[in-house]
Design goal:
By secondary structure, the protein is α+β, with helices and mostly antiparallel strands. The chain is built from four helices and 16 strands. Helices cover 16% and strands 38% of the residues. Strand 1, helix 2 and strand 2 form a beta-alpha-beta unit. The longest helix has 14 residues.
């Protein structure tokens, strides 16, 4: 249903409104979804919040404003309803719109002194165990200063945008998305003193997996998974990239 509605929107934009549309599914851009004829003036995300999270990873850093139109089930990030989309689009063409920037984070795995390809994300990175119910040890340092060894089911590192995702379900705080902070939230910690921590955005977080850990995964925005090995180091820091979202004139964050 959502895919059909997206195709209808595309056809109307190209035929009735005479716009040049780059449709990601129809092209092999060769470079993170960038059209061959140059950057776009506006990025439309047609789907749910998961679609916008993917778009943020593809287009983060371009500076092109993103308009999220909710065709999926969850529309917290894609806050524009289909019935109000065309009226808001006309306002955008007239320059009558407001934007907000959202910070992103960068995660990389360091394995035996080899740095694996880093990934930029908008919501969160999660380190958690696999199928077996075993406690994992995660030695965590902040800016090269020892913090603690988290013992439990895992650890979430989230942005303010991601504070209302897995972080919230794990008992973490809700932060306004305009803030520039990083959240550390343990998942089912085995120690009463392990509680969520809010860090300044220039912090460098190093998380080392215990040498006895087995079947542990690193998950980016709930969409990309990497199996981890004992002794792996996961480094998370603020990304140079950020995204610009067009705000709905009919809604506010609260």
């Amino acid at each position: 249903m959502a895919h059909r509605e997206a195709r209808i929107i595309k056809d109307r934009l190209t035929r009735e409104m005479d716009l040049s549309v780059f449709w990601e599914e129809d092209h092999d851009s060769g470079s993170k979804g960038v059209p061959a004829d140059g950057p776009a003036d506006l990025i439309l995300v047609l789907g749910g919040d998961g679609t916008l999270l993917k778009a943020a990873r593809l287009y983060g850093g371009q500076g092109t404003p993103i308009l999220g139109v909710n065709l999926g089930g969850l529309g917290f990030l894609t806050e524009i309803a289909l019935e109000e989309f065309y009226a808001i689009l006309e306002k955008i063409f007239r320059g009558d719109f407001q934007t907000e920037t959202r910070m992103m984070l960068r995660a990389q795995i360091i394995r035996r002194d080899q740095v694996l390809e880093p990934t930029v994300f908008l919501n969160d990175v999660v380190i958690n165990k696999g199928a077996l119910a075993r406690i994992i040890d995660l030695e965590t340092t902040i800016d090269n200063q020892f913090l603690t060894i988290y013992r439990g089911d895992g650890l979430i590192v989230a942005t303010p945008t991601g504070s209302t995702a897995y972080n919230l379900a794990a008992g973490g705080p809700i932060l306004h998305p305009a803030l520039r902070t990083i959240i550390l939230t343990p998942i089912c910690p085995f120690t009463l003193t392990n509680r969520p921590i809010i860090l300044q955005d220039n912090s460098v977080i190093d998380i080392r997996l215990g040498t006895k850990a087995r079947d542990v995964w690193l998950t980016i925005d709930g969409q990309i998974g990497h199996p981890l090995e004992p002794g792996d180091l996961i480094r998370v820091r603020k990304a140079a990239e950020q995204i610009t979202l067009i705000k709905s004139p009919l809604k506010n964050y609260f």
